[in-house]
Specification:
150 residues; alpha/beta; Nucleotidyltransferase, domain 5; five-stranded mixed sheet
């Protein structure tokens, strides 16, 4: 459509029915560039964290038998090789009655990767009620992280 209206039926004072979008596009592109430049400046700075290397010792058979609570894929709970009660209240009493756990105040918890999370929560609640204040989680190290590849 032409900006010059040559139609003889219209006067020079008639409004133009076309919208010129070029200035609007220019403004929008300028705003886009401003926000693209300004957004990274508004993001919070990252924190450099130097994570210490994990050094540990192998667990002895005695430490395993008296200091590791295991949950198998069926949801059965064991202290070392000793089965514990399936009921959280009974489990709490059995843990509270264990002199070694009460003396150490800590236990390691390992669970099968297919065990429902609510069963792990049951064990954690029983440990808290038995006044075991420190719980460590046992996991199999990832082979990629051992090799140092991402």
């Amino acid at each position: 459509m032409s900006l010059i209206n040559n139609d003889p039926g219209h006067g020079d004072d008639a409004p133009m029915s076309a919208i010129n979008v070029t200035p609007m596009v220019d403004v929008m592109l300028c705003l886009l560039i401003i926000f693209m430049v300004a957004t990274p400046m508004m993001a919070p700075a990252g924190h450099d964290v130097d994570i210490p290397a994990g050094h540990g010792k192998k667990m002895t058979e005695e430490d395993f038998l008296y200091g590791v609570i295991s949950v198998d894929k069926a949801g059965n709970v064991f202290l070392g090789t000793l089965p514990l009660s399936k009921d959280p209240a009974g489990m709490q009493q059995e843990i509270a009655a264990n002199a070694k756990l009460q003396e150490d105040g800590m236990v390691f918890l390992q669970g099968d990767q297919n065990v429902p999370f609510d069963r792990i929560v049951d064990v954690l609640v029983a440990l808290k009620q038995a006044k075991i204040s420190s719980v460590g989680f046992v996991a199999k190290p990832d082979e990629k992280s051992l090799r140092g590849t991402p």
